[in-house]
């Protein structure tokens, strides 16, 4: 197959991808051509009439055939960018998402001093490695139940020149220490929602990193239940959550004696990041959480004392977003 120019090849690929009902045919065509020619995507127009070698065309056509089967570009290229850093990816790890950058940014923004941090379900290591790279004085550790995922994560740590301690374990099993921060982007997709995912995700990304029982809440519950003894007294838990899970996460937090410090939205204004802290042990004994007051669109679950203890209700407020 012969093409006279970069432009002709991009037009051909765009039409091919449209026929296969890919969501972004022109963008995919440009990214593939850019990757295999070394021409930055934004400069492709400046090279519109450039001739391509037979090897370049062969690589581009091979990658394009894989893309027509909905294989993610990140798997085809074997890498992706996250927080401005390059990460190796393969079918054993979840492809890092742009929304997860918000999780990393919030953790760093909230914690300016040196911290100890545990990343649960690290996958490619993108969260732990990015934090270790941007906060070199932090003590960063990470766990994953998948040996293959940890192999990718360790390679990424080496590639990015950081030291992260990786544990092959199920959540906290075998870990005895406590941390200032526990962070996780756990599997949170329910069986019902899984069926609605795109072929790129459903067919090519690991089910282990996506699916969770209890309508997507299974790992949130386990991380909080088992995490109480691994979190320092003033420690914080940061989760990435599903776009429709915030109310249920708030209820779960109250049930397991955590306070909701804040909730942050993603680029589409969905609740996406939740920050939790443990309740003060004294307050757990003297308070219950059955007194609700509504203010506009938000309902606040307030703590009430049985023994006349004066509480700073603002400090120990559980936000219950509706």
Note down, in words, how this protein is organized.
This protein has about 325 residues and is an alpha/beta fold. It is about 35% helix and about 25% strand. The chain has helices at about 5-20, 25-35, 55-65, 75, 100-110, 125-135, 145-160, 190-195, 200, 220-225, 245-255, 280-285, and strands at about 80, 85-90, 115-120, 140-145, 165-170, 180-185, 230-240, 260-265, 270-280, 285-295, 300-305, 320. A seven-stranded mixed sheet has the order 5-4-3-6-7-9-8, with helices on both faces. It has a three-stranded antiparallel sheet with strand order 10-11-12. Strands 1-2 form a two-stranded antiparallel ribbon. Helix 1 (about 5-20) packs across helix 2 (about 25-35), helix 2 runs antiparallel to helix 3 (about 55-65) and helix 5 packs across helix 6 (about 125-135). The longest helix has 14 residues, at about 5-20.
The level of helicity is 25-40%
Query: Structural class, from secondary structure content?
Result: alpha/beta
Report strand order across the widest sheet.
5-4-3-6-7-9-8
Distance between the termini: 57 Å
* Number of extended strands: 12
Task: Based on Cα principal axes, name the global outline.
Answer: elongated
Mean pLDDT: 88
Largest sheet: 7 strands, mixed
Proportion of residues in β-strands: 15-25%
Spell out the helices and strands N to C: HHHHEEHEHEHEEHHHEHEEHEEE
Tally of helical runs: 12
* Unreliable residue stretches: 284-322
Rg over C-alpha atoms, rounded to the nearest angstrom: 23 Å
């Amino acid at each position: 197959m012969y093409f006279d120019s970069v432009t002709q090849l991009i037009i051909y690929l765009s039409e091919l991808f449209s026929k296969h009902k890919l969501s972004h045919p022109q963008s995919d065509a440009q990214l593939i051509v850019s990757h295999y020619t070394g021409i930055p995507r934004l400069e492709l127009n400046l090279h519109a009439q450039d001739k391509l070698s037979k090897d370049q065309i062969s690589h581009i056509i091979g990658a394009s055939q894989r893309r027509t089967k909905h294989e993610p570009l990140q798997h085809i290229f074997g890498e992706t960018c996250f927080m401005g850093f390059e990460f190796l990816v393969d079918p054993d790890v979840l492809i890092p998402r742009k929304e997860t950058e918000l999780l990393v940014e919030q953790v760093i923004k909230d914690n300016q001093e040196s911290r100890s941090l545990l990343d649960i379900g690290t996958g490619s290591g993108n969260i732990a490695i990015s934090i270790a790279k941007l906060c070199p004085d932090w003590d960063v550790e990470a766990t994953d139940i998948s040996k293959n995922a940890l192999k990718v994560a360790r390679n990424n740590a080496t590639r990015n020149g950081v030291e992260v301690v990786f544990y092959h374990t199920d959540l906290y099993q075998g870990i005895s220490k406590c941390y200032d921060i526990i962070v996780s982007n756990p599997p949170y997709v329910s069986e019902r929602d899984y069926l609605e995912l795109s072929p790129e995700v459903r067919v090519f990304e690991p089910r282990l990193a996506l699916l969770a029982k209890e309508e997507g809440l299974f790992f949130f519950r386990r991380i909080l239940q088992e995490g109480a003894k691994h979190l320092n007294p003033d420690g914080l838990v940061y989760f990435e959550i599903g776009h429709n899970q915030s109310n249920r996460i708030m209820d779960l937090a109250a049930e397991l004696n955590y306070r909701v410090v804040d909730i942050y939205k993603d680029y589409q204004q969905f609740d996406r990041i939740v920050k939790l802290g443990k309740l003060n042990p004294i307050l757990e004994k003297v308070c219950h959480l059955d007194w609700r007051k509504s203010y506009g669109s938000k309902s606040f679950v307030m703590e009430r004392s049985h023994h006349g203890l004066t509480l700073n209700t603002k400090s120990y407020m559980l936000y219950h977003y509706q």
